[in-house]
Request: fold
Amino acid sequence: MKILPTIALKKGAVELIDQTLLPVEYKILRLNRVEDLCEAIKALRIRGAPALGVAGAYGLLLAVEEKWRQHDTWYFDADGTNLDAFPAIATVEAVQQYIDINAKILRDTRPTAVNLGWAIDRMRKIYARVWDDPKAMLQALYNEAQAIYNEDIEMSLAMGRHGAALLNDGDNVITHCNTGGLATSGYGTAVAVVFSAVETGKRVHLYADETRPLLQGARLNTWECVDRGIPVTVLCDGASASLMSEKKIACAIVGADRIAANGDTANKIGTYNLAIVAKRFGVPFYVAAPSSTIDTAIATGSDIPIEQRSPDEVKQYRGVIVAPEEAEAYNPAFDVTPHELIAGWITEKGVLQPPFDR
Amino acid sequence: MKILPTIALKKGAVELIDQTLLPVEYKILRLNRVEDLCEAIKALRIRGAPALGVAGAYGLLLAVEEKWRQHDTWYFDADGTNLDAFPAIATVEAVQQYIDINAKILRDTRPTAVNLGWAIDRMRKIYARVWDDPKAMLQALYNEAQAIYNEDIEMSLAMGRHGAALLNDGDNVITHCNTGGLATSGYGTAVAVVFSAVETGKRVHLYADETRPLLQGARLNTWECVDRGIPVTVLCDGASASLMSEKKIACAIVGADRIAANGDTANKIGTYNLAIVAKRFGVPFYVAAPSSTIDTAIATGSDIPIEQRSPDEVKQYRGVIVAPEEAEAYNPAFDVTPHELIAGWITEKGVLQPPFDR
Reply:
C-alpha cells in the first residue's frame, strides 16, 4: 500500500508536505529549527492528531540537532544516527534540560490533540532516565521516535483492516476533515478504512465534507483519493442531511483528536453536526483513531480543552474577505461528539466500546 | 425603519445592489435588458425568494421597456409611468405575446423559488385579460408590479412584528442564509424578525451560519446587522452543535424558498442540518416567509423541484481553487426540511401551522 511522505527525518532536519498549499501545490518543507516546526504546526502545515505525535517526537530530535549543529554533518536521519559527531562537551544534564524546554514549547502548539503530548511523554520517559552518556540517551530517543513513527504506520494499517471489515462492496461513506495519509505518518485513520477496503477489492465512494474553515476535506481528502483513484465527492458541511435524504450512505467515519474515557470524542469542528445528522438518518457513525488518542485521565468530553482559533479563518479565505471587519466570528477548532452518537471506535486493536480498558 | 434599495424601477431600468460583491463593495447595477436581469438572477446578484418575486414582476416591465425603447424617455419608474410615450403602433396582442415570452424566460432562471412564478402569475392575470388599449394594460401591469413591491414591504414589516413577539430581551438567535432586506424588497423575512425585535427595544444577538457555498450569511447578514448596529457573530455551518452546547440559543429562524401544503420547507442548502441540530438541543426552529411562499399545489416536500448548481461553487471560491479538478461536488441549491422539525411558520398573517388554509 501507498504511504505518503507526510513527515520524515532527513539528515538533521524535519521534512514535511506543506498541507496548506494542497491541492494547488505539492511542496516539501525542510525545517532546520524547532521554531519553524512550531510555526508549521500552528499554521496547520502539518495537522492530524497522529501526525502531530510524530512531529512532537521528531521535534525533540530537531532541537538537539539545532543546538549542537555541526557544519557538514547531522545526527539523525530516517536511515539511522550519526552520533559519533555529537560534541563530547555536552553533558547529559545540559541535553536533558534543553530537550525538556523544547518539549514544553512543542506541546503548547496545539492544546487539544492528545497525541502530541502523548508522544512527548513517551520521549520524556526515555530522556528523563539516569544516563551516563548523552550519545546513548540520544540513540535511545531516536529509537523511540522511530518506534512512534513505525507504530503509527502499523496502527494505520491495522485500523484500516479492522474498519474495512465494516464496509461492503458499493458502499458510500461520508467523512469530515482529512484523516488520510496526510493526517498521520502516511496512511491514515478514518479514510485509511476506505483505502484498506478498496485495496481488498471493494468499491467505495467517499463523500467528503469540505470541512470549513480550513477546508481539509475539500483540499486533502480529495487530493488523496484522486491520487489513489478512489471516487470522491466533496460537499458543503451543511449538505449532509440533503445527501442522506437522497442517497444511501452506509456509514460515517471520522477521526479524533482526543477521546475521553466514556467515549466522548473531540474532533474537527463540524463533526458533532455530522453525528447528529447521521443519527437522524440511522447512518452508523464511527470514530477511527489509534488507541493513543484515548485519554483515560479525562472522564467525559466536558473536560477536554478546546483550542479557539483566529476569527480571520472564518472571515477570510486566503486573503479573500468574506465578512465585514466589525462582525465577530465563533471559531473553535474542535467540537465534542457525545459517546451515545458513536456506534464504535475503530482502533488498531479492533472496534472498541467504552470503557476502553476492558 | 430602514428599507434597503435591494431592487427598484428607475426610469426605464431595473436597479439592484450587486450582492455578490458585498461586503467588500457596495455597487448598484442598472440593468436595461431582460437578458441582463436574468443573468443577475442566475448569478445571484439578486437572490432571496421575495426579492425574486419583485424581480419577476419588474422584469416584465423591463421587457416592454427594452422592446419599445425610445430615445430620451422611459415608460416605468418608481414614481409613476410615462405611457403617453408608448408607440401607438404596438398592438395589444403583440405586447401580450411579447410579455408572455419573457415571462417564461424569467420564470426559468430559478426553478425552486416559488415567489418568482407566483409574481409572474399575478402579472399574467392582468395582461392576459381582454384589453382595448396597450397603454391601459401596461398601466395596470405597472400598478400590479408596484403592488407586489409594496405588499412585500408590508409583509416584511408584519412578519417582523409577529416574529418579534417570540423573542425576549437578551436572546441569542441563530439563522442560515441571508433573509434580511437584501432578500426582499428591503426589510426581510427571518432576519426582519430580529430587526423588528431590536426596533422595539429588545437586545438580540444574531448568530449567522456562514452559509456555504456562496456565504450569504457571512457576507450579507453580517453586513446588514453591522449597518443597523446589531451584534452579529458568524460561524461555520458545521459549528452550530458546538455553539448550542456552549451557549443558550433562544431559537433558530430561517427563510423559505417554497413551502409545501404539509409544511415541508425548501430553503438554502444547510437549513435541514441546522433544523436537525436545533431539534437535538431543544431549540425551537421557525420558518419566516410571506404566505405567497406556501405552494398549496404541492402536497409534500418530496414534490419540490430542487435546483442543482455548478460544482465549481463548492470547488472554488472567487477564483481560489479549493479542490482538485478530478473531484466531484454535490451542490444542490436547497434542501427540504420536514415539517415535524419546524415549530411554526411566521407569516404576515401571524405564526401559522399546516394545513395553512384553515
